[in-house]
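Researcher: Structure prediction, please.
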Amino acid sequence: MSAETTGSRGFSYWRLRFRAWRGSRPFWAGLFTMAGGVPIAYFPYANLHLGNVTLTMSTTAGAGSLIIGVLLITLGLTMWYHQPVRVFAGVAAILLALISLPVANIGGFLMGFLLALFGGALALSWVPAKPRRRDRRAKGADPSGDEPDSETVPGPREEESGTAVIETTVDANGGRNSAG
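Model: Predicted structure follows.
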């Protein structure tokens, strides 16, 4: 370490790193999906104390709601750390949220249901960002981005005439395919 370095990085460095990390993945989709899994998994095992009276909200499907909640949390983490399967994770989160309605105390008293449903929808709608203009310029692409280069647009082949082939021969053979 040199005398000029402080040995630690400031808050703005970590904030910018987190911002870049968050921007490259469906962050809010994963967060809402995980937040939806918590009440779905928690409420069937919770006890509510009202003075000397204890209300137990456990149901016969407590294990089912625990599995749904854990799967939603896992799907939220999958959205964060494995973006190519975000469509599958979004559809699975929506289906698990719908299944939680009859299984897990009306989907965690509608809190978990709505959060997981919203997170799944966000995962389905998220797409990776397009590269910035200066990144495209560095790669040699057209900076306007409106029209592709003339070199990349295919034209007519030299051996082709300007007319399209109109004659086609179809041998239906009575609707049977001759494979051999």
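Model: Residues 62-81 form the longest helix (20 residues).
Researcher: Thanks, that helps.
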